[in-house]
Structures are given as C-alpha cells and as structure tokens.
From TrEMBL:
Organism the protein comes from: Ideonella azotifigens
Lineage, top ranks: Bacteria, Pseudomonadati, Pseudomonadota, Betaproteobacteria, Burkholderiales
All residue ranges annotated as the YhcG PDDEXK nuclease domain in the record: 116-270
Span of domain YhcG N-terminal: 1-91
One Pfam family from the record: YhcG_C
PANTHER family in the cross-refs: NUCLEASE YHCG-RELATED, UNCHARACTERIZED PROTEIN YHCG-RELATED
Matching InterPro entries: PD-DEXK-like_domain, tRNA_endonuc-like_dom_sf, YhcG_C, YhcG_N
Protein known as: PDDEXK nuclease domain-containing protein
Length: 286
C-alpha cells in the first residue's frame, strides 16, 4: 500500500513522496501525535532531515535526549549523526541513576556544575587513526587542534578555545598546559592534559598545580574556579581516588578512546540501571 501511495503521490505532487519518506511520515505521526503533551511535540527548530535521523532511534528515552540536545546545541544533521554513532546518550547515561536518565531524556544535558561537562569515555574517532597505529601525545594534541569542529562537538556546549601548550611560569620555571579552554556557561577556565597511557599520581599533582596558578594568576573578577581534566587511555580508579584525596573537587580524570564505543556494552549498562530501578521505557528497554 505504501509503495502504491508513493507512486500516486509522486505523480500528483512531485518529489518528496518516496516509499522511505512515507514510512518516516507514518512513524512521525505515530510518535508525535497531535494530542501529545507539549514536551512530546516536534520542534520548529529541527528540520525534517533531523527528524528522519531521530525516528531511526527506537528507544523513546534515547530519542528524546537527542532531540533535546539537537535543539539546545543547534546540531546540524551531520553533527546529530555523529553523536548518535558515538553513542553520546549511552555514554552519559551509563554513569547516571534512573532520575538522571529520565531527566536527560526530557530536557537534554543541562550544564550547571563542573561534573556536568564530563563524558566517559571521550571518543575521538573523527581523527581516523588506524587501529594498530601509535601516536605521541604531541601528535594527538596536534590532530585534535586540526579538527576543531568535531573536537568541540565532543567536548560539549559552551567551550571556547584559549590556547595550546599554554605557558605557566612559576619562580622562573616554565610549565605548559596541553589545552586551555574557557567555558562560557560555567564562566571558568577548563584545562586539559592528554596522557597516552595510564595516568600517574604526579600527573594529578601537576594538574592541581595548574589549577592553583590559574585561580591566582589568570582568573579575573566574575570567573569561577578553574576546572582540570586529565584525559588518559587507561585509569586506575583506586590510584585516582587516593591521589586526589583532599584536592580540589574541580579536578577530574577521564578516559578517552580513538574508536567508536561498544554500543551494546553501553546499552547493557543502561538496561541494568533501569531494571534495578524498576523502570520500563516505552519501547521495551527495562
């Protein structure tokens, strides 16, 4: 029937009525009924192409999150595709409780405190580094700076670039922060150091030094305390816990990876969280 309709509508009205388009129109009608609450109605800020990508997501929680984020961060269709492929919702939701997951599905990610900036892991698949290939920290830093648009997209909303290899001079000794950003929503500097292997305790001490310097020497009136993020390929949770004991709560150690995450493993984590809380999503995710 849909195939016949596609032919008849095409003859009558011209382009835009392919079989696949009619399938998505039907899905759109079913998932965004006219009688739905305001929160479930389609947004005029998103194009039909955005909604085609959203309608491909079966789970309502996940679809709601991407819809809200696409509006809030004004993602283009390619950016929306990239975030779906990189499993942004699953990466963020894996570390949340049921209430946090449901809030994200309804509102998207709201940045109100330093921890809201974090993702685990960060994904840099856009660098297209061949899997067996090894890069140095300098090469990784250069590649990230050579791909500013996807890098900023991965970091999230609100980041503005300040500098690379930012010099910090203390008593005549020069130190350098790999990457420095300013976050316009949180109104603070965000310092990022890249590590190829497992983060060590002295890496954490070094970042704490940078935070102290920026708080005293770089902050101006109205700035909030700086945030430090160490990105490493591996992370020993116990070492990080002990090494950060008594330190600033603005210092974080997060993992990154160069390839797309295992979506099924992340989805299982989400399912376990929702199942433990007794929450069933509209499309069968428990």
């Amino acid at each position: 029937m849909i195939q016949r309709l596609a032919i008849e509508l095409g003859l009558r009205h011209g382009k835009g009525f392919s079989r696949s388009n009619l399938v998505y129109m039907r899905l759109f009608y079913l998932r965004y009924p006219a009688s739905a609450p305001i929160s479930q109605k389609p947004s005029h800020q998103l194009s039909w192409s955005h909604y085609v990508e959203l309608l491909k997501i079966e789970d309502a929680l996940e679809r709601g999150f991407y819809e809200q984020q696409a509006q809030a961060e004004r993602w283009s269709v390619p950016e929306l595709k990239r975030q779906k492929a990189a499993a942004l919702f699953l990466r963020l939701a894996a570390s949340q409780d049921k209430a946090g997951i449901l809030q994200w599905a309804q509102q998207g990610q709201v940045v109100e405190r330093p921890a809201d900036l974090l993702r685990e892991p960060y994904v840099f698949e856009f660098l297209k580094i061949p899997e067996p290939h090894q890069v140095s920290e300098t090469q990784l830093e250069t590649l990230l700076c050579d791909h500013p648009q996807p890098f900023l997209l991965e970091l999230g909303k609100g980041f503005t670039f300040v500098g690379r290899q930012y010099r910090v001079t203390i008593n005549g000794t020069h130190h350098r922060v790999d990457l420095v950003f300013y976050h316009r929503i949180l109104r603070c500097f965000v310092l990022i150091d890249l590590k190829l292997g497992e983060v060590q305790h002295h890496d954490i001490g070094q970042m704490n030094l940078y935070l102290g310097y920026f708080a005293s020497e770089e902050n101006v009136e109205g700035d909030n305390p700086p945030i430090g993020i160490i990105l490493s390929r591996q992370k020993d949770e116990l070492l990080v816990e002990y090494a950060t004991y008594g330190m600033s709560s603005q210092l974080f150690v997060q993992k990154y990876q160069l390839y797309l995450p295992d979506r099924e493993a992340l989805r299982r984590e989400l399912e376990d969280t929702l199942r433990a809380a007794g929450q069933r999503s509209p499309n069968g995710l428990e």
